[in-house]
Amino acid sequence: MNQIILITGASSGIGAACAKYFAQAGAKLILAARRMGKLQQVVETLNIQASDVHLIQLDVRDRIAVESAISHLPPEWSHIDILVNNAGLSRGLDKLQEADFQDWEDMIDTNVKGLLYVTRNVLPGMVQRNKGHIINIGSIAGHQTYPGGNVYCATKAAVKSISEGLKLDLIGTQVRVTSVDPGMVETEFSNVRFHGDNQRADKVYQGLTPLTPDDIADVIFFCATRPPHVNINEVILMPVDQASATLVNRNRIQIY
């Protein structure tokens, strides 16, 4: 795979798994995340030459930093073929009338505005070259709202609408757009949602077999490697133990 892949949120979870899959295919990787130390640890696990990876310490919520990072890429890294908009998070599981304002800011700024900032700075080059692929990581939460999900679900519904809008805006070009929307995936997601409460986070996945980051990366890689005339618009995937955003099997059917 003689392509340059930019992955946001690449320091752990789905982003790190994507780095592994694309590295194994011989792609050149631009890995972006807030935690540079974690990024370097990811690179150490990859069988990849130093010349085939470029690291960026980046908070996608910072529009000026995003613009600077993309515009100052070395020339040999500037022609991005695939953008995986993976950076995202959930904060809290409170009723809207009881929620923390900062949790809302974190989710909206990262999941919606951050995705837009990165896409807006990468996409013009793809359009100019008339090739490229935007892959947005959505969620089942963008299709089904659940109790306490209010703002998080709204941000993922926004990702769904942005992906659909991109496909419309890019008609007439060869730039592809895909939204990969998972259900329950065991990553740092729940730990972040519950502000580091490991015990509460662990309970989310107890008694069932969730998806893994590799499961999602495998689907993303599949979407990215279809023939150029094929665009997979949207993929919804969940573990067998999950039937909807809230209905799961933990050795018996119950609401989680």
TrEMBL record:
| Protein name as annotated | NAD(P)-dependent oxidoreductase
Recorded superkingdom: Bacteria
Family that this chain belongs to: Belongs to the short-chain dehydrogenases/reductases (SDR) family.
Q: InterPro entries from the xrefs?
A: NAD(P)-bd_dom_sf, SDR_fam
Please report the organism this UniProt entry assigns to the protein: Brunnivagina elsteri CCALA 953
Supply one GO molecular-function term: oxidoreductase activity, acting on the CH-OH group of donors, NAD or NADP as acceptor
- Alphabetically list the UniProt keywords: Oxidoreductase
Pfam families tied to this protein: adh_short
